[in-house]
Amino acid sequence: MDALPDPRARLEAYARQNLPRYTSYPTAPHFGPLEDATYRAWLGRVTAADSLSLYLHVPFCKSLCWYCGCHTSVTRSVARLSRYADALAAEAGLLAAALPSRAPVASLHWGGGTPSAIGARGLSHVMARLRRHFAFAPGAELSIEIDPRVLDAPLYDAIAEAGFTRASLGVQDMDDAVQRRISRVQPAAMVEGVVQRLRRAGISGVNFDLMYGLPGQDAAHVEASARFAAAEGADRVAVFGYAHVPWMKPHQKAIREEELPGAIARMEQAEAATRALRAAGYVEVGLDHFARPDDPMAVALREGTLRRNFQGYTTDAAPVLLGLGASAIGALPQGYAQNLADERAYLAAVEGGRLPVGRGLALTEEDRLRRGIIEAVMCDLALDLRRVPQAVWDGAQARLAPLLADGLAALEPGRLVVTEAGRRFVRHVAACFDAKLGQAPARHSSAV
After folding, report:
1. For the chain, how are helix, strand and coil distributed in percent, rounded to 5?
2. Which end of the chain has fewer CB atoms surrounding its CB within 10 Å, N or C?
3. What's the pLDDT at 443?
4. Which CATH number does 1-26+364-448 carry?
5. 311-335 b/e with 16+ CB inside 10 Å = b?
6. What's the distance, Cα to Cα, between the start and end of the chain in Å?
7. pLDDT tens for residues 222-246?
């Protein structure tokens, strides 16, 4: 990027760039067909000494929020949801059979869509099957994403009985007008009630997911929502920028583009949330994440053990992530494996006794090297240059030059650091080490 004379114009130009979120490297657009035999060979190399992480994807909601960028669809069919829950349980058995040893599960996460869409009976059924097929390590973190609008008493009981330790609430914004513009109305009293019931059910960790860049939203809205999250005692708060990608998610066309805030307004909204959460005592974790100082994520940041995977920032250090459900992605030392995204194809594979893998990518040594570099930048906001081969550094310097000149990154003896001014642009720094950027036909979201 050529130098621009106006600092505000420079920042706006950076903010308008489209870049990957770097929850993996190489990123998903670079995946290609993956053979069942290859995936089975990777699974066959897992040992009892390897800890596992499980991710289960439920691609259903009772209604569709217009901002949503997830792989999901609307259904209220009990039969369809029951069949999908049975498939998740069956896939757990297929994966367990493909593993040569009973490695311990250190972490489990349910995402979506809305995981609770399969109902209390479906949730309990799948969790029971998982515990039958896998050994859960003592102290394993079990987390689930929750839509506050669709919880009932049986679901609270199922979540508690299954042993979940953390719940993430999709809150987005607490302003009524903004909620109506994104087709997700949930009054403050509703969210407060959910938090109280989760605490009473023994859920020790409660996360809030907020968003900025929504239609009709301004900095005051975002700040008020951040203050609400702090007042409710959220242990972690994520403040994500809305990604307007109607070419990928046609339902987003319901959002009027003229009501979306511009790049500078988005930055102001993100900074408003940051100020509010810092004032409430939260520690800023990487990009868009915040945690209370005693939360394990803040501890991991201090101890240099923070990680990043397809769910974002995590304390999970398991070398093997197994994805279950349509479109779910797993990560093993040898590469990435993604399940078939089409629901019918996924069901047909599992019900036919086959692992439902469809796409993936075998990692090269250079991929692993660059993945480690990019993860360090995203997590630590710093990079030990001793771990960067000269050829990789030579290739990154031209991209880094404008970031260094604009004060978004700095060189210290033996280190590259992201400055405080550059924290919002950490993806730009990471992109300097992405050898594949621009090589796949993908359109990424705005960097800020």
Report:
1. 45, 20, 35
2. N
3. 55
4. 1.10.10.920
5. bbbbbbebebbbbbbbbbbbbbebb
6. 16
7. 999 999 999 999 999 999 999 898 9
